[in-house]
Each structure stands twice: as structure tokens, then as C-alpha cells.
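ESCALATION

Customer reports they have been waiting on this structure for their group meeting. Please prioritize. Original submission:
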Amino acid sequence: MVCYWLLVVCYWLFATNPQGPIPTSRFPIPNSPSPIPHSQFPIPNIFKVTKTTNKKDGKSSDYPFDGLSLDDRNPDFIKLMLPLWEWLYRYYFRVQSDGWQNIPASGKMLIVGSHNGGIATPDMFMFLYEWFRRYGTERLAYGLMHPTVWKVSPDLASMAVQCGAVKAHPKMAIAALRKNAPVLVYPGGAQDTFRPYHLRHKIYFAGRQGFIKLALREEVPIVPIISTGSHDTLMVLGDFYEQAKQLHSLGMPWLLGVDPVVFPIYLGLPWGVSFGPLPHLPLPVQIRTRVCAPIVFERYGAEAARDRNYVDACFDRVTTEMQLELDRLVGN
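Update from on-call: job pushed to the front of the queue and completed.
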């Protein structure tokens, strides 16, 4: 999901403006620091799949942005993304956003969202833009990204890592929270972002409760975020993954050798009709986002996280409250 929009971002910034990044003065961002000069941030370094580190013996070596470190987040790289994100926010998706008073002023939290809009997931990027506009690029924040992205495109995964992405693994989420940082997670994953069009106004986490156990174990509040409009940027007709698996068992290879987990058929630009989790150009539909009130549970700790009935109850509470807020947002 992340990789598609990063590709669009970097193409727009560099292919259409080979002299360097588009000045932020074209789309001024309130209270944001000035962009670093292009000469101080050369293009080749942005697209590197590896980073250089100095060993104890004084020698240096390259190793990949593998999403297993909290130190690879690059505020300067994020600043580079902001001009395009702002243009999309203001003029393409014409975003309306509210509820930001519900974000705690500091400290760790688990921000839980519903995935929408196919691989492009435009509402996620619009949320990220609003976050950086309000809190700056220096405030630590991380997002959990599916490991498949590294298999499909290490180049794009490296750019996502510099924006704060880490591999979606419990140890990375725990490490980020223990660094007192907010962590963004979309539990529904691919099944959520490619759910059928008639479910576009439904919270669908595919029964995944790992985020509840994480919040209980690490004793953090859950801050839900919802949106409408993003799932109208394409029209998913249905998921035919089971049929695709049968064809795969008969010898049909997976694209890029990666199991896609979902196999939707959808209507969207530029293909008209497309199948599989392929990139698309989102329609310019208005997106509305809302940050909901934090959810604090009555019990926390390892014992609470092991209590299956309690985890079920917490999961139901989160999804129910998110659905109620989404219904209100759609109704308005």
C-alpha cells in the first residue's frame, strides 16, 4: 500500500522537476521548517536501498533499510514529501478532517485505522500529511508495514522506512511504544483495503486482534481514526483469492513470486477493469477523516492480554465505537 504512493510522490518530485524538489513556497505549510537545500540532500541518497554505517574498526559497510530499526526514520526525507502531499490534501482529495483534539499532546499510543482505497490507500497518506503539518517531522511516530512490501520492492520499502515505517511485527511495535512514540496500525490489512464496495462504510479488521493484545500488554490507549471517501476512489467488485489459489495450485505463478493474500476484481483508473492487487490512479473523490476519542480499557497487563474473553470484549468495543463514528461521519 505504502509503496505505490511513494512511487507517485518521487516521480512527481523528480521526474517532473529534474532540478530538485518542488519548493514548499508553492504550497506553504503553516509552522513547518524550511526545506533543506537540494545541494545538501542529493537525489541518489534518497533512492538508495542500503544505508552506510561505520563499524568499530573504522570501516564502513552498507546494509538494507529492513524495517527492523527505529533509527532509520528521516525527517528530511519526510519534508521532501510534504509539498505533494499538501497538493493532494488541498486540491485533489479536498480533505476535511476533525477530531485532532483527541490526540494526546505527548506519550505513547496505538493509533488504529481502517484501510481504504486499494493499494493507494489515499486516506492513510492524507492522515500522515495532517499529522506532520500539525506536529512537525521531528515528533517520533512509526507505522507498521506488511513485510510483503520488502519482497515486492526493496527500493520503495526503503523510502517508506525513512517516512517512519517498520515491519509489522510485535517486537517492532513494542520497541516503538517503549520509546514513548505513537504507533499507527491498520489491522485489516489487504483484506480491509480491498473489501467489496458495498462494505465501504464498514469497519472490517478480518478478525485480527493482535493490536488489542499489544495495547493491553504495553498499557497504552487506542486512538481510532476513520475516514470516508477513500474507498470510493475505486470500486471493488469482489475478492476472488480462493479461485486464484486454485489456479496457482495448477501452475499459475504469482506476480513477482509473492502470494498477494487477496485477488480483487475492481473498476478504476487507468485500467477500467483490473484484477489482483495492482496499482491504480485514485479518482479525485473528497475524503473526510476523523480522529476519535481515545479508548482506555479497564484492565491492562500481560494477564489481561492472555484473557481470551477479555480480548474479545475489547476488540468488540473498539470496532463498535469505530463503526458508530463512521456511521455519523457518513451521515453528515
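Sent to customer with the following note: The chain has twelve helices and twelve strands.
Escalation resolved.
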